[in-house]
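chain below, 128 aa
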Amino acid sequence: MNIKGFQEWTREFDETTGWELLTTPQLLAHLTEEVGELAQSINRTSEYRGEVRDQHLKNIGVELVDALWFLVKIANRFEVDLSANLQAFVDRVNAWPPEKHQGKLENGLETLKRDLGRSDTHHGFRSG
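prediction:
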């Protein structure tokens, strides 16, 4: 299924089941909940080993789709054509000069490293 098909299916499903009655803040709350569940599964993949880790690895896909579903519901609420916006995004990103963004990423990582170093000494402990 493509994005356009998923958006249409979601619209029909919501009309059939009554999901369209939820308010936009309720949809946003559901999205936030799903993103929280995604974060939990991602965190658990580094905290656990074996079968429990494997369950959380599998759950990442489930939570990504759950979050996508609520994003699509919100897009439908505002009559946003996700396919058109997705193509515009791809076109915009493809026009970015790679070296400019690589430099921003490297600068951001250096800033993070510096800030973490300050945090470590501020709390009375040092990293590494």
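The domain at 3-85 is CATH 1.10.287 (Helix Hairpins). The radius of gyration is 20 Å.
thats it, cya
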